[in-house]
Predict the 3D structure of the following.
Amino acid sequence: MERSWKLIPQLLLIACFVFQICASYDDVMFYEPFDESFEGKWIFSEKDYYQGVWKLSKSEGHDDYGLLVSEKAKRYAIVKELDSVFSLNDGTVVLQFEVRLQNGLECGGAYLKYLRPQEVGWKPKEFDNESYLLHNVWT
C-alpha cells in the first residue's frame, strides 16, 4: 500500500506533462510534416524570376520527407496561406522551421518570409521580393 502512495507524485507529474503537451498543441496555427503530397496545399510563384521546381522527397540519410530544390543555381518560391490571420501583438508568437543543406550553400542565400494577409494586395502566385512582414535569412 505504501508503495502505491509513492507512485502518485510521479503519476501526477506525468499527467501534468501530458496535459501541457496537449494544451500547447491546441495553440498551433500551422504544422506541415510533408508526409504526403504538398501540391494543392502550397502555392507556387508564377513569376519568371523563380524557375526552380520543388520536389517532395526524403533527404539523404533521413526517413522524413521535406521540400527539396531540384536544381542548383535556380531561384525557388513557394507560399502557404494560413487558415486564419494572427497578430504579432496578441502575445507570444513562435515561428519555427528546419533547413537541411545537404550539399552546403554556394553563392546565394536561403530566405523564409512571413507575409502580410492578402488584403494588403499581394497575390500568392505573383509572390516576389517585396511583400514580406518578417524576413529570416541564413547563409
Q: What stands out?
A: The beta strands are 43-44, 54-58, 65-69, 78-79, 110-115, 132-138. The chain has one domain: 2-138.
